[in-house]
């Protein structure tokens, strides 16, 4: 199975792709670690994000996408920006892969029970990696 873990923040979608099973997987070197929307009020920029993301999914044969869910009701520093909801919606329009929103507490529970192995990823990809790993664990349960 090939899964893509995504963590949304600001105007960026941090991405990690894993191939295999929960017990035997590798991080796929896609050459792309994040995608951004430069101007969320510009239709061409939003379309560019949509096209780039869905081309990425097709080019890497991603079967399932796990997005770390953000709380629409959180306030203060835990609140999600409106742009992350726009990006989430654009990702959910995927016709090439199943998209699942994974609650942060589910991810944390999976990681407590079975921590992921170290991986060669950038620090900003950590939450996307943990999301993808937890997703593999959920799918194998």
Describe this structure in words.
With 141 residues, this protein is an alpha/beta fold. It has a single domain, classed as Nucleotidyltransferase, domain 5 (2-Layer Sandwich). It is 38% helix and 23% strand. The protein has 4 helices and 6 strands. The protein has helices at 43-59, 82-92, 104-113, 126-140; strands spanning 2-9, 12-20, 25-27, 34-36, 64-68, 98-102. Strands 1, 2, 3, 4, 5 and 6 form a 6-stranded mixed β-sheet that branches. Helix 3 (104-113) packs across helix 4 (126-140). It is globular.
Please give a quick description of this structure.
With 141 residues, the chain is of the alpha/beta class.
Note the topology.
Blueprint: E1 2-9, E2 12-20, E3 25-27, E4 34-36, H1 43-59, E5 64-68, H2 82-92, E6 98-102, H3 104-113, H4 126-140
Parallel strand pairs: 1-5, 5-6
Antiparallel strand pairs: 1-2, 2-3, 2-4
Q: What descriptors fit this protein?
A:
single chain, 141 residues, alpha/beta, Nucleotidyltransferase, domain 5, six-stranded mixed sheet, 6 strands, globular
């Amino acid at each position: 199975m090939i899964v893509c873990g995504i963590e949304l923040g600001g105007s960026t979608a941090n991405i990690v792709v894993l191939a295999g099973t929960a017990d035997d997987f590798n991080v796929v070197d896609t050459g792309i670690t994040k995608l951004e929307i430069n101007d969320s009020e510009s239709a061409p920029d939003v379309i560019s994000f949509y096209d780039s993301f869905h081309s990425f999914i097709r080019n890497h044969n991603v079967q399932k996408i796990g997005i770390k869910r953000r709380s629409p009701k959180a306030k203060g520093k835990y609140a999600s920006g409106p742009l992350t909801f726009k990006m989430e919606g654009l990702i959910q329009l995927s016709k090439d892969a199943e998209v699942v929103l994974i609650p942060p507490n589910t991810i944390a529970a999976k990681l407590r029970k079975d921590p992921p192995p170290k991986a060669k990823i950038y620090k900003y990809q950590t939450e996307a990696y943990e999301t993808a790993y937890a997703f593999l664990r959920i799918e194998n349960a």
